[in-house]
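User: Please predict structures.

Assistant: First:
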Amino acid sequence: MTLTRLLRRGGTPDPGAETDSAPGAGEKERGDADAPAGKAGGRLRRAVLVATALVLVLGGCAFFYGAHQLRSAASARNHALTDPGATTRVAGDVGNALARIFSSTPDGTAAAERSARIVLDGRAARQYATLFARVRDDLTEQRVTLSTRAVRTGVAELDGDEARLLVFLDQTSHKDGDKAGATTAAAQLTVTARLEGDRWRIVDIKAR
């Protein structure tokens, strides 16, 4: 009998497993003699079932306790759940950095690139250099102003000197003298940042 069936029955085994059929006319005495043995067997089977159920229940409790301990250990390592100060710091640094490098004026593309060299590293720096090289001349020639802000920054993981974040950006663009014709676009980025000295630098950016 499975544990679920035993629990559903309230711990009582099948009556048919314990009860003999009524003895015939010539078998009454034998039936009476066998009755104590039948009762003893029924008690033994009941004890075995209860013991088995107890082992399964205790084993299940141990399993769930172990799983909780693993989750607790993982949560303890993720300082995004336990260190509000560090979480706020990395979210602010990354959000501000993205706003700076994705904002530009027709005559200020060099400033955006200088900011990128400060706040980007590794793969993110290479990504940005490739992207900005494609649009730099167009921004200047067409007199386009870009303004970007991080509307929401969430820290998914923070473990020591590395963090992974989900950032939602809004970017508005317009040509000189045509703010009425401005267009706004939204972006969702997964960002990996690394703490270098006292500064969080972005090392990877992925669009979602």
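Second:
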Amino acid sequence: MYIKRKIEDDILGYLKRREILAIVGPRQCGKTTVLKKVFESLKTEKKIFLNFEDQEVLSLFENNIKRFAQLYVASNKYVFIDEFQYAKQGGKLLKYLYDTYETKILISGSSATDLTIKAIRFLVGRIFVLQMYQFDFYEYLLSKDASYAVVYEKEKIDLKNSKQSPLLSVEEMLTFRKYYEDYLTFGGYPQVVLASDEKTKREVLKNIYNTYFLRDVRDILGLIDDYKLNNLIKALALQIGNMIESSELASISEFSFPTLKKYFNFLSKTYICEFIIPFFTNKRKEIVKNRKVFFYDTGLRNFIVDDFRPLSLRTDAGALLENGFWMQLVKNGLKSQYWRDKNQNEIDFIVELGQQKLAAIEIKSSSRKCKALPAIFMKDYKNAEDFCFYLNGEVSGNENNKKFLPLF
């Protein structure tokens, strides 16, 4: 079953441009499937699809680029190269192909680190990079019930042009919530979403995690004692939504501080988790150093901590809701920070909306738990719009100018 991905239209829109097109994202998020779908849509064009997991093709590219070009590039209008991260001198060789031939080249890779170091620095002005992630909630809904996906797109909130709660029936609200809780529990990896039962979903997540270690850790880092990194990832998974303490993590993982920083960067560039920074303008009053951690996929995170219980039975439900909201921000191209002052007043997410406007966002399990923003924050940031996204409950009206919206 093929679920159309939103990025597919973006790729098709860039096909007529001269630049190399790079699709970057986590393993198993569907990059190869989308590229093959685009490839198949070019029915009358001369084209070829290559994979750098094929050692013969990779060796020819790395060791005899002119022969590679004669065989695959010169006679084709489009060249697709999957798993490009395996090419050690990829960027330099791509530059030669781009400067020599008119062929449109599309590449994909599972590590932003590799494509940045080995490709993009040689290709300034010659490449567009598109980020691809696991299913967002809209794509998840497409796989379950397309009618709900249509409703979701119609009612989806644009923070820049925000509105009050969507006008959904009670039945629709309950169904959306059921789907959203399943999405948070098992995540958005396509193979997981399309699996028919929980046992299969868990097995797919296990294979994705093991593949991540076997390939990315050993291939990119050459790390033999990967149990240390495993300990670090599990410790981070238990701290989602919280400020992380490097000293504690160094003790758990047995990594030195410089090595810990290196692996934070590695985990970010391989789309395992991200570390968001605090929002501040006043160093004396606000937290300015500690970062929070969120995982790119809550299903993978739940596999790491071995907890797939329903939200109602979990002690980490609030943190999971925060992580799920962060995933939706990322997959909609929005960057976020958090705010906290030295008196421990805190706001879950700060999103800059442009024109000096801010969205100050709380994530709550129930609309009844939403509170007014800290007075000190409102005093310093009068341009902030106040949002509360909730899982359960409903509100009418607009209390203290706060906008109440369901998470889903």
